[in-house]
Structure prediction request, 575 residues.
Amino acid sequence: MKIIIRLLKIIAVIIFLAGLIVLPHYLKFHYQDLLIFLTVNVLVVASYRIVTLTGEWSLIHAVMMGVGAYTAALLFKNFNLAIWFTLPLAGGMAGLIAALLSFPLFRMTQFYFLIGSFAAGEAIRLTWMQFIVPFGGSGGLSGIEPPMIGSIDFMDPIPYYYLALGVVSACLFILYRIEKSRIGLTLHAVHWKAPLAQSVGVDTWRYRALAFIIGSFFVGIAGALKIHYLGTITPNQFGIGFMVFILIWVIVGGYNTIFGPVIGVVVLTIFDESVRGFGELRPAIYGGVLIISILFLPLGLESIYTKFLTLCGIGGNSSDGPPP
Amino acid sequence: MSILEVRKLTKQFGGLTALADISFQVKEGEIHGLIGPNGAGKSTLFKNIAGFYTPTKGEIIYQGKKIAGKPPHVIAKMGIVRTFQETTLFQEMTVFENVLVGCFAKSRINLFSSILGLDKQLQKIAREKVLEVLEFIGLSNRKNQLASELPLGSQRALAISIALASEPKLMLMDEPFAGMNMEETKHMMDLTRKVQESGITIVLVEHDMKAVMGLCHFLTVLNFGHLLAEGTPEEIRHNEQVIEAYLGGAK
Prediction:
């Protein structure tokens, strides 16, 4: 029985991956664009999850994405660096800023941290607005081109999608490994009972900061990935509006496992597109569905899977920590 | 030889003096009881020793080093680990994972070895250590259960297991017997003695007089933040002041 389930799982994963690879060939141009942004947003929510793992919900994640995006844009425009260099450097810059911010920010917890992170984020974002040189002010920067490698032009959505898919998959794999490692276990511990973790020798400040830095590093990469395709960057792309979307995706998807936020962003994006025909009613329908889903699935869309397993009598593994 | 010495410790919260000029010593290898009526300042004293509070005045000396004011994780790494009054556990983790957190707590963070899986040796040692601790405490048969599903007695035992996994020299136990029935209390007493016999010094805050008298080698009695009396359980039992302030109510 167990072997069959494992086999089915492997087959499902292979079909899923194959589906991801052939998918763009069956989509219209507009949807190919959307698919790329969706792929990037998957990395945004997955990296946000590592921050929430310690129990702190920050409001600076969107701005951190912007830090990565601006880093990539400036490196490209001023030094003509290729995407292979701008991606890791964008992540590095976001991680560095996060490391500096953890000194003031992690002296706060809960609501204070939420507000503190928002304030710090706005300070960064408004700096982009104020400085025409080098950030381009509120108009931002444009003319950031996707790379050209040999004869493959990444301006074309399909090659760029494969590039984004590769980068995002690699990042997701690393995030998954971190979560399943002893660091992930300790982050969980810090989340649920910080005093208990402290009392056996866990430096909770250090772990909170570490999660924030890792999360910012990966969202910085996501920002660079987005901006290389989009070509233009403005401070408003990374405002509180986008941050709220991140929160919605994570909450509706569920934040008990790494799959929850990913499911959230995919399902909500597809849903949002599918109600496009409703015109003016679209935001209202979207909002209504959000409320319904939170009311009836407080543990998020991912809980459907566990419920399904229990129904089948297989019994989901209720623990989401690393396997012993 | 004393492992812990508290010297003229004072803790004030604004105008309220929770602890006034408390001095006492804990001998290595003993079970030291800390008793007193509600509000005597026992838990406050614990929090000062474990680093959750910073004393207003006075010193805490552990193995010859001053520790007052150091953060909890630093004090824990030096070998002082506390357990909590309520059943404080990582509720949604399994018993095994709970203890594993205790094992990993002291080890250095190494992001790259974690991602690449280069810390297999460390993992293996930790897992063996967890099994050893669970065997010692008698929770082996429950290792895959969620902490929240355990009965009260086992939850307290698990709290001690987490502390043990971090290899303490001194364990501060905050009311480990609260809310237990006779049988659970007896089991917990055996367990406490077993921990002490393995070479760990224990400081115990407790209201259950039978457990305290039966377990402790030495007692310190607090009353309204002041040191009231010190002595062996036998001496304390016959101390006039203590009877008046504390045991008197039980007669």
Notes: The first helix of chain A runs from residue 2 to 22. Residues 146 and 155 of chain A are 6 Å apart (CA to CA). Confidence is low (pLDDT under 50) at residues 315-324 of chain A. The interface with chain B takes residues 174, 177-178, 181-183, 185-186, 188-189, 192-193, 195-204, 206-207, 210, 214, 318-319, 321-322, 324 of chain A (CB under 8 Å).
